[in-house]
């Protein structure tokens, strides 16, 4: 019975209209707490694009219980080529755990070279350090 329910659920997801799915090639982020080895949930994250006059906020979100925002892109359009910034608000995350941290937020700047290019930005986090890279 459980297998049948899972099959029905999965097959119904295949029928979700494109309007409810992310555009081809989106940005995803993931945070893993290096000290605990666990995902960092409930971390506020912002996405901004560099303009001549400064930074324009395109999206805001919060990591899920798996430490992810699986589809993080501008809600009102495509991710066009340019320089972008994802900022992880780590102060609130560590404060909620009653822990100090050296970095109140972690900005990660990156370049999009093709419209709706598929990008993943993982963050390996600890109280006094971090590491990131272009993921897949």
Could you describe the 3D structure shown?
The protein is 14% helix and 40% strand. With 136 residues, it is mostly beta strands. It has a single domain (26-132), classed as Sandwich (Immunoglobulin-like), CATH 2.60.40. Strands 1, 2, 5, 8 and 9 form a five-stranded mixed sheet that branches. The protein is globular. The termini are far apart.
Compact summary:
The protein is mainly beta and 136 residues long.
Distance between the termini: 36 Å
Would you tell me which CATH topology applies? Immunoglobulin-like
CATH class: Mainly Beta
What string gives the helices and strands in order? HEEEEEEHEEE
Number of domains: 1
Number of strands: 9
What low-confidence regions span 5 or more consecutive residues with pLDDT below 50?
A: 5-22
Strand content: 35-45%
Task: Choose one word for the global shape.
Answer: globular
Overall SS class: mainly beta
What is the CATH architecture descriptor?
Sandwich
Lay out the secondary structure:
Layout: H1 2-13, E1 27-33, E2 38-39, E3 44-51, E4 54-62, E5 68-69, E6 82-89, H2 90-96, E7 106-112, E8 119-126, E9 129-132
Parallel strand pairs: 1-8
Antiparallel strand pairs: 1-2, 1-5, 3-4, 3-6, 6-7, 8-9
Task: Name the features.
136 residues; mainly beta; Immunoglobulin-like; four-stranded antiparallel sheet; 2 helices; 9 strands; 14% helix; globular
